[in-house]
Each structure stands twice: as C-alpha cells, then as structure tokens.
From TrEMBL:
Keywords: DNA damage, DNA repair, DNA replication, DNA synthesis, DNA-directed DNA polymerase, Methylation, Nucleotidyltransferase, Sodium, Transferase, Ubl conjugation. Residues 343-423 form the Polymerase/histidinol phosphatase N-terminal domain. This is DNA polymerase beta. GO terms for cellular component: cytosol. GO terms for biological process: DNA repair. It holds the Pfam family HHH_5. Residues 54-73, 94-113, 129-148 form the Helix-hairpin-helix DNA-binding motif class domain. SMART domains: HhH1, POLIIIAc, POLXc. It is found in: Cytoplasm.
Amino acid sequence: MVRMKNREIVEIFSRVADMLAIRGDQIHRILAYRKAAESIEALGRDVNVVYAEGKLTDIPGIGDTLAAKIEEMLTTGRLAFYDKLAAEIPPSLVDMLRVEGLGPKRVKQVHDVLKISTLDELTVAAREGKLRDLPGMGAKSEAKLLAAIEALARHGDARIPLGVALPIAQQMLAELSKVPGVVQAAVGGSLRRMRDTTGDIDLLVAAADVAAVMDRFAALDNVESVAGRGPTKTNVVLLNGLGADLRVLPAERWGTLLVYFTGSKDHNVKLREMALKRGLSLNEHAFTPLDGGPEILCATEEEVYHRLGLPFIPPRLREDRGEIEAALAGKLPTLVTESDIQTDLHMHTTWSDGSLSVLEMARAAQARGLRGVVITDHSVSLGIANGLSVERLRQQAAEVRAADAAMGPDFRVLHGTEMEIRADGSLDYPDEVLAELDVVVASLHTALSQPREQVTQRLLNAIRNPHVDIIGHPTGRLLPDRAGADLDMDAVIAAAAETGTILEINANPVRLDLRDVHARMAIEKGVKIAIDTDAHSPGEFDLLPYGVATAQRGWATVADVVNTWPIADLLRYVNRPHAGG
Ligand code: DGT
Ligand code: CA
Ligand code: CA
Ligand code: ZN
C-alpha cells in the first residue's frame, strides 16, 4: 500500500528544513533537507517505484540517512523526526516564512517573545501595533511586514512559472505523440499563449482512437492520480501537484479543439458572440447552425477564424486585449519571431558570475545562429556576483577585443556592462568609463522594496544618463514569488521614450521582465525593446523563445526590437547624440 506520494515527501522535507532554520540549526543540515526536497520534486518518477527498485540513494542529494527517512515515510506514513521537531517548533510557524522579508530568526523571536505561532496571530499583532517594540523592529518595519502579509493574501493561489510548466508539458506531449494513430498534438491554454505563469497544463491531441491516448496519458511516469475521465477528456494530478488536462478529438475537429482550449476564455466569449450573430453556435467540436443544419467541421484554426470573417489570430495575442478588433480592422501586428533575432545584448562570463569565458560564450551564441553578442558582466558594487572594478573592466576590454578578432568578420563581440543602479540612485561607473564601452545595460538588483517614488527615481536617473543604452530587467521581479520594484511604469516609459533608452525584456522565464502588458505600453509610446537572455551559461541562450513570446504578447514587431537590427545599425543607434543627460 502506498502511504505517501512524492509531493508529500517534498512537503515534509521542506518543512523540516524550515523548522530547522527557525530553530537555528546548522546550515549544512538545513541545506541537506532543502536539497532533498528539490531532488524529489524534480524526480519525475514515483518515489515508491524508485524505493521498490532499491535505488533511493541514486537520487541526487539522497544519502543513506535521508534514504532511511524516505523509507520510513513510505512504509509507515510518518516521520518520527518531523514529529519530534514539531513538538519543539510549531509547524504553523513555517507558514509565516512565506511572508516576504520575514526570516527564520524573526519568526523565532515573535514566537518566543509574543507567543505568536500562526500567520493569523501575526497579522492581528501587526495591526494592533504589537510588533514595533521588538528588538530590531520599529513602526516602519511593522507597516512593511503588514503590507507583505496582505500581498501574500492577495497572491496566495499559487500559479506555476511558464518556465517550469512548459518543459513538463512538452515532455508529456512527446510521449503522447508516440501513441499509434495520433495525428496532431499541442499544448493549449495559457501555456500555448505563453502567459508568464500558468494554472495547469492543457494538452490537446487529434487521434482516431481517443481511449488509447487517454490510457497512455493516465499512465505517464509523472502522473500521480487520475482526477476525472470523460469521453474526450482526462484530468490528472502530477507528482509535483500540478493539474494536467488532456482533450482528444478526431483530426477533422482539430481546428475548433485548438481554438476552444487555447483560450483565453475572454477571447473565446467574443468569438462565440460573433458566431451567434452568424447563426452558429461554436464549441470545441464544431460550428453548429442554430436552425438545426449539419455541423461545420474545422480541421485548422485558420478555418475557424475564416468562418467568423477574421484572419488567423496568433495564440500569443488571444487575451481579449483588442486583438479581435484589430483583426477586423486589418491591423494585426506582424509579430517578431525567433528567427528575426540576430544579437544578444546581455550576458555574463567568468569575469563575474558566468560559467564560460568571453570567447566560449561568443562561440555558443554563434552556434545558435546569432551574429553578435555584447558581454555585460556585473559592475563593482554587486560584490556577491564578483562585479568588476574599473581596472578589471578595462582588462576585460582587451579580452573582448581579442575574442572579437578571433571570431572573424561574420560575428561581432562587443564590450558592455550590466551596471548597478545603486540604492541611492547613483551609478556604479563614472561617465568617462561608460564612454569607453560599446553598450551599457543598467539594472536594479538591490533595495527593490523602496517606496515607489524613490525606486522609480533611481531608474529615471539611469535612463537620463546619456551613456546608459538599455535598462535590464526593469522591475527585478522573480517568478513566482518576488514581486519586483513598485515602479511608476508610465514615468519610466515616458522617460525611455524621451531619451531613446531601450527597455529590456529579459528572456529568462523566472524574470520575463518587462512583462507583456508593460512591453506593449512601451511599444505604443515608441520605446525600443531588447530581448536578451542574460545568459550565465551557454544553455541559457536557449531561453530566448520565452523572451520572444513575451514580446509577441506585447504586440512587438521587428521594428520595435533592436536585436533584429544588423549590428552596425544597433551601434549607430546607441552611439547617436542622446536626448537625455
Ligand atoms: P490557466 O490554466 O489558469 O493558466 O489559464 P487557461 O487559459 O489555460 O485556462 P484553463 O486551463 O482553465 O482552460 C483552458 C482553456 O479552455 C481556456 O483558455 C479557455 C477554455 N475554457 C475553459 N473553460 C472555459 C469556459 O468555461 N468557457 C470558455 N469559453 N472557455 C473555457
Ligand atoms: Ca490552463
Ligand atoms: Ca485546464
Ligand atoms: Zn541582472
């Protein structure tokens, strides 16, 4: 009998890590439990099966001690060590760690001093002003804590980052494609629209034998349990807790199936209204005449849109943000695509916190079809990332020029920086040093929680510096949990438009920053966009599609995206006489 599943073990190990942290235990012990939780989460197989094979210690980070604990949980459904810890550190304290800015030491303090052991009690205490008198606290930090608690309550329902869900979906899709008789297979829902986070995985398949596909789906390695099954759909829960829905119809209905389950819901509602005006009802199966005539089947999405008097609308635009109106008016944008991208303007090497040399990164970029890169290591005040002093930056210039020569005439290696915008708004390098660089990216990495006016002003200072060409990942958000700076985006975009400063869409799926709607706002004001991977290793160049998709969701065309320009045009643009400064 199965007593525990993967995600319950993940949950217990990560709670143990948090409880040890609150207790003030040794760091290596805390990290061991955290690593174990991450390993099981990434496992992709039922841990009960791995245990039955006697291979628990093959799992990364699982040695004999942790394997014995997993065995205990799998066979008894309990972990004595957890129960023992829980007697000392109430497990409800762990929930408080989800509040941004609230660490294990503080949690222990409010528990020890004020006897607070739940998030609700903490909220009440903060509202009543009982936290401000604790050592190291004050009225200001109390208000900040309360704001963070309220933010947590707002975003409580966990959505999964696109970068986590999409690879899982693609892997499942590859398995389903192998089932005999499968004609088409695609991801649907918010994943196909490439929204930055997703509620669940939607998979769509066209096949004659519906049952065979659904049987295979229910038996995939990463499926924990089947939550529901109907004639054309199966819903499962994955080992990592994510839901996944599969829908299967015959190939002649593929067009309506795709449109219906790509969504968004609001986009679909509009399409259905348009269909009704034409005397048709529309669902995933077909158009059905309201007067009772025979079904009209659509094997492609083009046919569905055509029947409604519309051109094909790319999935990335299907959010009911004016795309149907634009389509009717013949004004849909021609979206930028991956193959339009010629350069990457933001990446790191071993000079700061990257894994490869300048030349190796250039070669890796060339291998992916790019024609040029800008090397942008961190600047001096980001000590944690081994940021470059002016002296090291100048040494690096020589290496960049040597790499540029070594790559030959068909590939350019340019010298840049990802310069810190410091907490006080000043910049990390003086103007005369910035003037020596080909391209300057400026970014916020610290003090992101400053009040809106202050943090916006920091960014405006950077935008107005005539040497700053690009603002990297403008808000600094990290998906799923860190909200990023509370920027006045209208002011940032207005200043970027005025000075010609480029705003980045950072392609790393933990960032996707600018996000879609802000990219669209910027483009509408004439601001140029850079889509950059911010690669710290060669594999991260492959994150580009996430950035391109985000740009597409921002309605970006080739003209809006500086990475599509020949490198000479790019250099001319960044070296033009600036309006700022
Ligand atoms: P998510 O999963 O929250 O990230 O967002 P979606 O858009 O993937 O939504 P989901 O998974 O609930 O449903 C997938 C698509 O199926 C959705 O985009 C549109 C379609 N759909 C689902 N439920 C409804 C519904 O009640 N009405 C209509 N018109 N469409 C629906
Ligand atoms: Ca979905
Ligand atoms: Ca769904
Ligand atoms: Zn950065």
